[in-house]
Amino acid sequence: MMVQNEMLDARYRMGRRVRRMELLLEKSLQDGPMLRKVSAALQPAVMQFFSGNFQGVLRNVDAAHLSLVNAPLDGPLARLVALDVTYPKLLDSAERQFVAKIDVAYGIKLANGEVRCRWKGMSDWQDATSELKLATLQPSSAPVTPLSAIVELACGSARLDIDVTALRIKDLKKKSGLWMNVSERDAQSSRSLARARILTLLAGKALENDPDLNMLWEIADGQTDEPTGRVGDYLALVGPPGAKVPCRLQRGNDIKVKQPLVIALHGAGGSENMFFDTYGAGKITALCAKRGWHLVSPRVSGRFPAQLLDSLSKAWNIDSSRVFIVGHSMGAAAASAGVDSGAIQPAAVALLGGGGAVTSPARWKDLPLMIGVGELDFGKMMASRTRPAAERAGSRLMYKEYAGVEHLSIVQCALDDVFTWLDKVSIYVKPT
After folding, report:
1. Which pLDDT does position 2 carry in this prediction?
2. What is the reported pLDDT for 225?
3. What CATH fold (topology level) applies to the domain 81-168?
4. Contact between 395 and 384 (Cβ < 8 Å)
5. Residue 83, Cβ neighbours under 10 Å: how many?
6. pLDDT at residue 229 above 60?
7. Which of 6, 86, 91, 94 is most buried, with most CB under 10 Å away?
8. Are 254 and 274 in contact (CB under 8 A)?
9. What is the structure's pLDDT at 430?
């Protein structure tokens, strides 16, 4: 079995690839033939993920990327997308040099001179098998200094740009050295959770995503903790003592008026980062921000986090009559369980790529419910069971099947329809 660090590294590589591919896919959501080409690569990738074949996932997500730009699987661009750029995310302001390395993610060997790299606009081309050094950094006395650059990769006529972002922090070693060696498992607050992730990065290990480093440092350094005042993307442990769960949050425009809350529940094997970083490269965050709505995505273990709403209501100005749930796959099952058990009484529920049991019909009666599945989605079987049960219970059901779409991309393909539907639902709900 892969050790934890190797698994996190694999998840990081997968996440970056999925996000990169989804940014391209967004332009082709109405292109049926292209969706089928992408699905042909993503279907095996999803199965490989569940079986632990992460190398296969990387290859097939990149195959989907290449299909979106009509590039051959054995061409120059295929050589480039198989590469990763590794670099330190955090460094002390006293350090004067920043070094990035070109890393092969899977299955290829680079011959000397075959792939070239450079800091875009800063340096000359060099062989990608050597370290790429950003010459002498300028001293900085600021508490926090962002560092951003672009690594340009080239193979023949093919080009690929990789964004590099890091944070230079004054007295980083001194400050972080005073923290206890806390792990995520030990974390009891948002601050300790952020500190655990900072210490992971400083140890040269991977997180599963590229977090907002400024936000992470603000929380870890003690400038803020629970989700009370920060607007925008936020990391927090939310819930009652002993039952807190890691969450990604985005606070809505609630200064003058209560705002709806969207609870986004990810699928099996995912995390609180899925809806914020992938599922359409974080598409749901833009859809909520456009409306001024609150958004929270908790880490789901199969059960609905029943006390999440109570905890957030103490910090945010939430319209409790307009709480909407969007769940994918296992998250769709968790959303269904939350409704069926009475753990939450949402104003509307969208189940994507799955469904759940309907055993308490009274709790589903008159509930606005959307079920969205892909034509090639293995979750269609579960959705097909939920649909008639919800109809019998009297739910106000909208059902849509998306042609040429499989289990992962169903979220990205359906989200625009979900929010158009939620806009209509929201009009007919009297705000509290």
Report:
1. 45
2. 54
3. Immunoglobulin-like (2.60.40)
4. no
5. 21
6. no
7. 91
8. no
9. 60
Residue 1, pLDDT score: 39
pLDDT the model gives residue 314: 87
Digit-coded pLDDT (tens) for 111-121: 888 899 999 88
3-state SS track over the chain: CCCHHHHHHHHHHHHHHHHHHHHHHHHHCCCHHHHHHHHHHHHHHHHHHHHCCHHHHHHHHHHHHHHHCCCCCCCHHHHHHCEEEECCCEEECCCCCEEEEEEECCCCCCCCCCCEEEECCCCCCEECCCCEEECCCCCCCCCEEEEEEEEEEEECCEEEEEEEEEEEECCHHHHHHCCCCCCHHHCCCHHHHHHHHHHHHHCCCCCCCCCCHHHHHHHHCCCCCCCCCCCCEEEEEECCCCCCEEEEEECCCCCCCCEEEEEEECCCCCCCCHHHHCCCCCHHHHHHHHHCCEEEEECCCCCCCCCHHHHHHCCCCEEEEEEEEEEECHHHHHHHHHHHHCCCCCCEEEEECCCCCCCCHHHHCCCEEEEEEECCCCCHHHHHHHHHHHHHHCCEEEEEEECCCCCCCHHHHHHHHHHHHHHHHHHCCCCC
Q: pTM above 0.85? A: yes
The angle that helices 4-25 and 54-68 make with each other, rounded to 10 degrees, is: 20
CA distance 304 to 302: 7
Q: Which of 405, 422, 350, 420 is nearest to 29 (CA)?
A: 405
pLDDT digits (tens, 9 = 90+) for 325-380: 999 999 999 999 999 999 999 999 999 999 999 999 999 999 999 999 999 999 99
Contacts of 339 (CB under 8 A, 6+ apart): 325, 345, 346, 349, 363, 364, 367
Q: Are 51 and 63 in contact (CB under 8 A)?
A: no
Whether the per-residue pLDDT at 158 is higher than 50: the answer is yes
Structure tokens at 181: 């060696």
Cα(169)–Cα(92) distance, integer angstroms: 5
Mean pLDDT (the chain) is: 91
Classified by CATH at the fold level, domain 226-427 comes out as Rossmann fold (3.40.50)
What token pair was written down for 407? Answer: 């289990």
- What are phi and psi for residue 346, nearest 5 degrees? -75, 165
Decide if pLDDT at 131 tops 80.
no
Count of beta carbons in the 10 Å neighbourhood of residue 23: 15
